[in-house]
Amino acid sequence: MSFPLPKGVLGSSRTCLHSILGLVEHSRDPLRLQDYHYQFPKLAELCYHVLHLMCCHPELSTPTLRYLRNNHDFFFVQLSHLPMSPPLETQGEGSVSL
After folding, report:
1. How far, in Å, CA of 36 to CA of 33, rounded?
2. Which has the closest alpha carbon to 16: 59, 41, 46, 37?
3. Whole-model pTM over 0.70
4. Burial of 81 by CB count in 10 Å (0-12 exposed, 13-18 middle, 19+ buried)?
5. Rounded-to-integer distance, Cα 8 and Cα 46, Å
6. Which of 12, 17, 42, 45 could form a disulfide with 5, with the two C-beta atoms 3.0–4.6 Å apart?
7. Which residues on neighbouring strands pair with residue 70, listed in sequence order?
């Protein structure tokens, strides 16, 4: 099974996967992409859904995960842009502290 090479390698052309990754990557211009996620949330959701389907597909999962990991460091970059906050701890009834 062949899988897309990074665009331009060995004369490979840009594919739909390259376009989807271009839309969801945060590593190059976080401000522009953050605006994209706010302006077009349904498109962002659909892009992530396609990537999820490819990662779960029995025949596509291995090459897709390998490509995303080796060529884009995709999972680390995506997870590093998630808003993280410390877990809330409850104290007694109804009170919450950090």
Report:
1. 5
2. 46
3. no
4. middle
5. 26
6. 12
7. none
